[in-house]
Amino acid sequence: MTYLWHRKSRKTTSAQPRQLGSATPGIPFEALITIWWRPKRSDHLNLEEQVRHDVTDAARKVAQSLEATDLPAAQDAINAAIGTPTPAKNPHYQLMEVDIQLGLSSASRETLAQRQTDVERVRRLRFLKEQLYDDPALLVLDRIEHHSDRPKGDELEYFQRLSRSLQANDSWWRPLLEQWEQLGEGFSDAEMQRRAMQVILDSLTALRDG
Questions:
Q1: Residue 21 and residue 1: Cα distance in Å, rounded?
Q2: 3-state SS track over the chain
Q3: Mean pLDDT in each 10-residue stretch from start to end of the chain (210 residues)?
Q4: pTM for the full model?
């Protein structure tokens, strides 16, 4: 009888990268898997394939909750989750060590880079809107800074109209619409909404007429 610890350990690798779905939509990991293991029973056919399948399946379950934007962290998480030897987990073999190296295909890297570029562009546009375009005075200064010639008369008139429009929106229309939105939450059907609007219009008319 050959005891388990007397049996020679074996090394199994994946000849081709295995795809593991990630938590990043459309961006799978490519995993190179190396496994050191020891057989428990010799009557199991295709035991090496079984070992490779089981480890790949375990890695796939862990990978689906990990983002592909941080490969080192995802690789550590997968190896930590399935790399611990589990003597009694399978009746046919014992895992000794598992090493999984993660990567991304060239197409996935390009897609991920484009997404990150798009996210940064949206972030910059939001920053410019909040810090520049919502303030006409800053918009004029930005125009002067980027052009050596002075703004033309029609440009100044446009900025003045824009300033008045934005100021009116901030001080009058937007607060009114926000209040109407809050008020409308209590009226679910169209008829009640119409009647509520009529009441508001009648009140505004009475207020205007003194």
A1: 43
A2: CCCHHHCCCEEEECCCCEEECCCCCCCCEEEEEEEEEEECCCCCCCHHHHHHHHHHHHHHHHHCCCCCCCHHHHHHHHHHHHCCCCCCCCCCEEEEEEEEEEECCHHHHHHHHHHHHHHHHHHHHHHHHHHHHCCHHHHHHHHHHHCCCCCCHHHHHHHHHHHHHHHHHHHHHHHHHHHHHHHHCCCCCHHHHHHHHHHHHHHHHHHHCC
A3: 61 90 94 90 78 92 94 94 67 87 95 93 84 68 68 69 67 67 69 78 79
A4: 0.59
